[in-house]
Structure prediction request, 934 residues.
Amino acid sequence: MISDTLRHFQQQYDVVVIGGGPAGLGAALAAREHGADAVLVVDREAEAGGILLQCIHSGFGLHHFGEELTGPEYAQRVLEQTLEQDVDLLTDAYVLDLTAGAAGGKRLKVMSGAHGVQLIDAGSVVLAMGARERTRGAIRIPGTRPAGVFTAGLAQKFVNLMGYLPGRRAVILGSGDIGLIMARRLRLEGVDVAGVFEIMPHANGLNRNIVQCLQDFEIPLYLSTTVVAIHGHERVEAVTVAPVDDQLMPQMAQAWTIPCDTLLLSIGLIPDNELAHQLRLRMDPVTSGPMVSSTMESSQNGIFACGNTVHIHDLVDFVSAEAALAGANAARYLAGDLPPQDNVRLVPGENVAYCVPHTVATDREHTLYLRVRKPLESCVIRFFTVDGTLIYEKKLRYVFPAEMVNLKVRPRFLENFHGDLLRVDVVAR
Amino acid sequence: MANERTLLPNKEPLDVTVIGGGVVGTAIGRELTRYRLHVALLEKEAEVGFGTSKANSGIIHGGHHAAPHTLKGKLEWAGNQRWDQLAAEIGFGFQRIGELTVARSDDEVRILDHLLGQGHDKGVPGLELWDRSRIRRAEPNLSDEIVAAVHAPTTAVVNPYEACLGLAENALRNGLHLFTDCSVQRLTQESGYWLIHTTRGTITSRVVINAAGLHADTIAALAGVPTFTIRPRKGEEYLLDKRLRGLVKRVIFPCPTPVSKGILIIPTYDGTLMIGPTAEDIPTKADLTTTIEGATRVFAAVKELAPGISERDCIAEFAGLRATVDGNDFLIGPSAKRGFFNVAGIQSPGLTAAPAIADLVIELLRDDGLAFVPKANFVAANPAPVHFATLSTEEQIALAAQDRRYGRIVCRCELVTEGEIVAAIDRGATTLDGIKFRTRAGMGRCQGGFCTGRCMTLLAAHQGKRLPAITKRGGNSWLVIPRLDDLTLASARGATGGDREDATL
Prediction:
């Protein structure tokens, strides 16, 4: 894979995209297609592609490419498309600083193994830094601190990229998709997987992963059960697990101890947003990502964002769709060609954790992404005005917190609405 | 850090051997290397500072906390004054940020008055009693219920593991013989010398300094002087996300009780807030667990001092064991056996006192008849390590242009470059924790999620090992094992390692 192509490498770009995963590459491609001439993608790894490169399982691309691909295949396609559009790609590189530059532009301090530390000016910037995994500290599992407690993604890197196993017998805490995928991956490698433990009463990963990764391999899933202690001094020797009550408090009387040498954590992803914080962008406390308009523009002009930096996706296909929007608008921004400003703010209501984008315009079509808090069957999504008037509703067969809901919002849905704030509910029919 | 592979031949007996490479042992070791003496330091862990010292709160106490009639009280203030010079020479993070000991009631204000008087008597400069408005101005995020505080400008924060590693590195520069992974099993005496039988062989030494921390009672018993018992007292500490940086600017102490200094808010040298420690007497020296009860106690106590802190901000936690003896004072001095000296019971303010403890040990050895002839070629300073993140943009540009490894980020939470990781390995890091304590790689909010693989690969390449040989902190703390396919292939070929693994390195 070509890792470093720099046609333009210079101090001045039209659009700089931070992050070379599917979000960043997709945004760069769209920026070129919408008139940006010099586009640079900065990626921290030696090869662009992001976390997809270690996701060697299949199941990617059904929506975006209309066929089932592995992670590296998906990454390769997006990368080739992007490079064909003559986008500069700087890998093994890192953006240290992002500040307001001259004439409404942005200035980036970029370091790389090949070019050292450089200051680069950009007309607009797309944030596509992805996410990081929540760690043991975030949930404070009591016990010792031996080697052998890894995030599921790090274990995936050990196995799929570095060619080593994290241990011989593993317990997995959290039923996030990476944890489910790793349960199967480790089992295929001959590692004994004692089980997946989920504190919530429902699984946190996609249903297809529960079936294909756990049930097909007879790996037990324990719902409403969590790890309450880690044992071992140098290396993990065992973990203690216990069921939790409906307040999520562990029932220690029913606890049991499982000998193992590895504990994998798949307890969620957090958008990686150092630069967004540095820029003091308005953030959504639920997503931990920047608030974005329907053009994927943040609270600061000329700073766009897409992918897991904005909110955690479960399918890369939707990341690609969001990236195309962000990249296109980053180019339009340069040409002074952005569509009129949004006029409606969306507020999460009953059983809705968040909506992205945070604002929409009534004069054009949007894709709205949202996540529910509780699973429901035979439900309905409803838009209400401030005073409780129903503006629009649509039936949904089911919703799960683990599966992002996406909804087309068309101008005709909102033609009778003249306010500036809509509440979004997802409730039982 | 050159870790000697074999013990010295017996025909060259050592003058002094220090058992224990915590901050006390390394401070003593480093002071001894100022003189024309043969000195060894034995550490049972993979690197120095990996025991109690790495879990230290990292506070150089102001000097006024410990009562003047105790050994602690004498050495606290004497030690405090030595740290500026040590930090400048050795090159570890150190800053005098001051402290506030706060009172929330009139009863507590009376205890503050006592503390203030005690500090004045000991000659600690700059102590002041602050009223509510002065506290609000200086620390606006503290609780409104705080009515008064003693401000001590002499209090500092330090990275305790950096101090240990730096002291040992400097001592090595000056001729110390360091043996890590070296556990003492027996001590015998023969014609005026001590024979120290270890897991790595036997060495002969005229003097033995027992600075074995939690295990000092075991070592004393091995020497035939089982005169004290170490009682471990556990402290749990919780680290908070860096976005809370600046919430408080000084070390915040609650009003002390007769048994404890209480649970503190500590703005560590690197800007991360740390809260704790708990203080719990426990039956075993192996219990380094953090507990739900400990976390509950720490967060509840801290919210009373600064209501802006919440459990959600926690990024990591750890526990350490204080080595206490009955009477709760330091136990420093000669034993009934000639040439065997105890430096035991070094709990808080042990870190603060460590440089003064080293001075005291030298006086004790001088009294015992050891000759202290200064070395002409003693080098007091370590070369300053590079901290890329703290350089100016111009310096960063120049450094990365000169050495590309400084243009490559390995740990992005703490902005640590490959150049710094390699420098840490060159300076003696042999484990993942050794890299972490020297560079902060892996200490940030992702807790090593991204940089662990890179650090392991760099360590393996430097040591000419394969990844399964890399450990978190020595011993059995391995990180990865070969894939079973590779093992099967390797055994089928009758080889010990597959080509595939070599290729991955």
Notes: Chain B touches chain A through 63 residues (CB under 8 Å). The first strand of chain B starts at residue 14 and ends at 19. Chain B has three domains: 1-93+158-230+325-384, 99-153+232-320, 388-504. The mean pLDDT of chain B is 92.
